[in-house]
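Reopening this ticket.

The earlier resolution said the output was attached, but the attachment link was broken on my side. Pasting everything inline this time so it's all in one place.
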Amino acid sequence: MISYEEWRIAYAKQALADLLARERLLQHADVPDCQQLHFLQMACEKLCKAYLCGQGVDPETLRGSHAYNQRPSAHHRTSAVRTGDPEGQRRPHLGHEGASLSRPQD
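Inline output:
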């Protein structure tokens, strides 16, 4: 059986590979921004999984699904109640904030 530490290291290595792939995509202006942002998203997910494995979360609960990462956080639930949106119908819009993640303009 693979240890939590080995899972942590494997997820971290996968995250690094995704970030390196993103860097390569950024070198090609003809590649749509959504592609490099997808690699950034995957890297972030794997970094979270690496962290969670390091904190003792069973790696089996992290495999094969994005469900663990997509659960609403306590912050999201509290914010939704404060803003009068207890059902979470209004989702944060990734507009202006997302633009800063895109390819730098010359």
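Reporter confirms the inline version is readable. The CA atoms of residues 80 and 89 lie 9 Å apart. The chain has a mean pLDDT of 77.
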